[in-house]
């Protein structure tokens, strides 16, 4: 009687998922469950992850970077992805997005741990993750250094299923490291992961130079050096147009005081539409302080009231 062996991603049959034939296969297999076609950049990103290659993926906000999370998991339902996310709210949104595509997902943070324990005292989200209940596990950078997460990584069965570690909004590694040192602490993640797991950074706003250098250093994206005896993993970069061409930045000279409750210099934002507010595009007004932002918002709302 044959015995089914536990799933082990490290022992998978090696296929080059970045060939044109393989990319077509990914497209064909995901088209029906998703209900739409993925674009070339998304397909190449998914193929790179399935190959086990580290990846830095740059694409505009709202451009579909999340396909690199759910795509590999839909292609290989036995694998697991860990996603480091900057906020609890974003984690919750991402979990809902994954579940809508049929991917089992969980956000593990202090709020969800408390809620799960309150609902079912015996419930342990970490233990459920270890046993394979979830394909996508979202957590904060701070939880990556917790004893519970370390125990999860050391579990042999979980480690064998772990295919990719993804840092969403990876530019924050450079921008937030001073007040969230856990981002800098991700420097050790490459060494803690199984060798078959890929590391992926997703972002829309990574500046060349020092910022990108910091991100690549922390994620372990180092170009191999033949003179260096230490083994270095090469990585792939897929960089696309990150501009949002439907957005324009408008600089307006301020001629009136901003210390009060009236901001005449902003009247044009509302008045230019002559009361036809349904045609007004989404508009962002940048303010130096939160307090000033509240006063500006109150004034603009008053203009909207008189336009109705």
From TrEMBL:
The organism of origin for this protein: Hydnum rufescens UP504
Signal sequence coordinates: none
Protein's recorded name: Helicase ATP-binding domain-containing protein
GO molecular function: 3'-5' DNA helicase activity; ATP binding; four-way junction helicase activity; nucleic acid binding
Residue ranges occupied by any Helicase ATP-binding domain in the UniProt entry: 46-224
Domain of life: Eukaryota
Alphabetized Gene3D superfamilies for the sequence: P-loop containing nucleotide triphosphate hydrolases (3.40.50.300)
SMART domains: DEXDc (SM00487)
Pfam families linked to this entry: DEAD
Entries under SUPFAM superfamilies matching the protein: P-loop containing nucleoside triphosphate hydrolases
UniProt xrefs under InterPro entries: DEAD/DEAH_box_helicase_dom, Helicase_ATP-bd, P-loop_NTPase
Protein family per UniProt: Belongs to the helicase family. RecQ subfamily.
Biological processes per GO annotation: double-strand break repair via homologous recombination
Coiled-coil region: none
GO cellular component: chromosome; cytoplasm; nucleus
């Amino acid at each position: 009687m044959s015995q089914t062996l536990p799933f082990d991603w490290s022992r998978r049959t090696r296929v080059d998922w970045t060939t044109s034939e393989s990319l077509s296969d990914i497209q064909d297999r995901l088209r029906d469950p998703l209900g739409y076609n993925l674009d070339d950049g998304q397909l190449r990103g998914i193929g790179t992850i399935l190959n086990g290659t580290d990846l830095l993926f740059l694409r505009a906000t709202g451009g579909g970077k999340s396909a690199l999370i759910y795509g590999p998991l839909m292609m290989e339902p036995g694998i697991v992805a860990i996603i480091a996310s900057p906020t609890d709210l974003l984690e919750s949104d991402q979990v809902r997005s994954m579940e809508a595509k049929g991917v089992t997902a969980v956000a593990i943070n202090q709020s969800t741990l408390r809620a799960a324990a309150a609902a079912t005292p015996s419930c342990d989200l970490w233990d459920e993750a270890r046993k394979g209940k979830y394909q996508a596990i979202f957590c904060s950078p701070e939880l990556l250094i917790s004893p519970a997460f370390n125990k999860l990584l050391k579990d042999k069965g979980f480690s064998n299923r772990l295919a990719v570690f993804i840092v969403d909004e990876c530019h924050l590694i450079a921008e937030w490291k001073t007040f969230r040192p856990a981002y800098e602490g991700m420097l050790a993640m490459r060494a803690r992961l199984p060798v078959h797991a890929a590391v992926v950074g997703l972002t829309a706003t990574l500046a060349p130079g020092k910022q990108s250098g910091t991100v690549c250093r922390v994620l372990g994206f180092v170009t191999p050096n033949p003179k260096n005896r230490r083994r270095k993993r090469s990585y792939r970069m897929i960089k696309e147009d990150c501009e949002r061409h439907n957005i324009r930045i408008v600089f307006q000279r301020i001629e009136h005081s901003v210390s009060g409750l009236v901001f005449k210099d902003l009247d044009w934002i509302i008045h230019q539409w002559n009361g036809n507010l349904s045609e007004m595009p989404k508009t962002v007004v940048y303010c130096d302080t939160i307090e000033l932002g509240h006063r500006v918002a109150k004034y603009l709302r008053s203009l909207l009231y008189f336009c109705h």
